[in-house]
Amino acid sequence: MLIPDNLFYTKDHEWAKIEGDSAIIGITDFAQSSLGDITFIDLPKLGAKVKQSEWCATVESVKAASDVYAPLSGEVTKTNTELANHPELVNKFPYESGWFAVIKVADLAEKSKLMTWLNINNSSRD
Amino acid sequence: MFKTPLYDIHLALNAKIAPFGGWLMPIQYTGIIQEHNWTRAFAGIFDICHMGEFMLQADLAKSNFNDLVTINLRDMPLKSCRYGFMLNAQGGIIDDLLVYRIANAEWMIVVNAATTNGDFAYLKKHLTGATRFENISATLGKLDLQGPLAAEVLTDLVGADITTLQYYTFGYFNLLNELIIISRTGYTGELGYELYMPNNKIPELWQKLLNDQRVKPIGLGARDTLRLEMGYSLYGQDIDEGRTPIEAGLKYFISWDKEFIGKEALLKQKQAGAGRRMVYFIADSRRSPRHNYRIFYNGEDVGSVTSGSFSPSLGFGIGMGYVSREILAGEKIILKDAAVSITAKVVNKPFYKNGTVKSKEIKHANTR
């Protein structure tokens, strides 16, 4: 399972790539693989305020719909509009073109509640 | 939980396994959409060993077998099969099934996995005049080969005679030193066959089919999206003892020219009009309606979704469900749960109209 070492992770397998005061967010390779073929993604609206550990998106696969929680609090400044017609990008490239949104992070200290790749690597082996 | 003879092979193929009807079954191997598209374009094999089979010897002049199913067994030519129902006195569907006429007074009944034991007990209790009635599910396995290339794949295994099989007929074919029933039937909307092989030779047959590059293994996930694109009902989800074939839009499979348990109730319902009926719908987006979503028509809650999924062939959400009033094709409905609201349009089934299921021109091996 692919787990890049420059990202931060939640225990529910969302990731955040922090760049300055912004963060790109998405779901992990493990998450996309567990969901199976992704067919639809309900993304947060531009300008929406998301809160850490609360709903920010819904991912539908052929079999089920699953909620995605925001890894960090902040305001949504960009969403990945490509996913509307190509949700399978999340299956193929969960850390690259399968990103969900960019948020302007409200409080970088929340980072302490996230895991580094070492932690998540160990926890997904449990 | 039961396992089919292929359980270990599914694990080795990295299948995702989940319980279905009391069995641990492969849901997907490489991915539901990929498997779905492969079946529509080439050929797929499905492990269907969980389904039940009964053997029955009954002369219709001496047995009441014909009263226990909605099919008119007297009309069935030898080596044909028919789809129909066992109903309770209220017309509710005890099970949907296939009946094979093997000889004048010899039959095979194929039933759903979860209902096998209940069906057998029901038939045992009500059947009179049969000289043999046996549940052979534990020793007989079944593989479905489905897809436009199914005939040419099977031709290489059992000979060109397979291409003479018409839709809903069967024959005996020599395969792996067994004389087995192969019928031209299926649950995908594509040209296809169901192969009834003793369980101990199922792994060998599976492997032989998979050695053919035109064939890939297909899980129950794609089986579900394939059947839903055709508007086929799934027992336990779209139909059950609380619903009648009339409500389910399946009265086409009722032989009205004979007696059967439940007929009186169905006739009454036909006359008075069913309180609810099945409708089929396409969402206006990729979003899938799901089981139990409410159906709204002109702001009024009129029913609920029984099956819903993303349709890989159409690229939209599709589904079916019961509603309490007539809604014509083309009319708009809204499908809702607490968090989701999907706009959809009522349509006629099947959703997918390019299936090869009734194809008369069967592709031959020289197309390779």
What is the topology?
The complex is a heterodimer of chains A (126) and B (368).
Chain A: E1 8-9, E2 14-19, E3 22-27, H1 29-35, E4 38-42, E5 49-50, E6 55-61, E7 65-69, E8 74-79, H2 88-92, E9 101-105, H3 117-123
Antiparallel strand pairs in A: 1-2, 2-3, 3-9, 4-6, 5-8, 6-7, 8-9
Chain B: E1 2-3, H1 7-12, E2 16-20, E3 23-28, H2 32-41, E4 43-47, E5 52-58, E6 81-87, E7 93-103, E8 106-111, H3 116-126, E9 130-135, E10 140-146, H4 150-158, E11 170-175, E12 178-183, E13 192-198, H5 202-210, E14 215-217, H6 220-230, H7 263-272, E15 277-283, E16 294-297, E17 300-311, E18 316-323, E19 332-336, E20 341-347
Helix pairs in contact in B: 2-6
- Helix count of chain A, per DSSP? 3
**Rg on CA atoms of chain A, Å:** 13 Å
SS summary, helix count of chain B: 7
Helix content of chain B: 10-25%
Low-confidence stretches of chain B: none
Biggest protein-protein interface?
A-B, 14 and 20 residues
So what's the oligomer here? heterodimer
| Helix/strand order of chain A, N-terminal first | EEEHEEEEEHEH
Radius of gyration of chain B: 21 Å
| Beginning-to-end CA distance, first to last residue of chain A | 14 Å
Biggest sheet features of chain A: 6 strands, antiparallel
**In percent, how helical is the residue content of chain A?**
10-25%
Largest β-sheet summary of chain B: 6 strands, mixed
How large is the share of residues in beta strands of chain A?
Answer: 25-35%
Number of strands of chain B: 20
Task: List the strand order in the largest sheet of chain B.
Answer: 11-12-13-10-4-14
Q: What's the helix-strand series of chain B?
A: EHEEHEEEEEHEEHEEEHEHHEEEEEE
- List the strand order in the largest sheet of chain A: 1-2-3-9-8-5
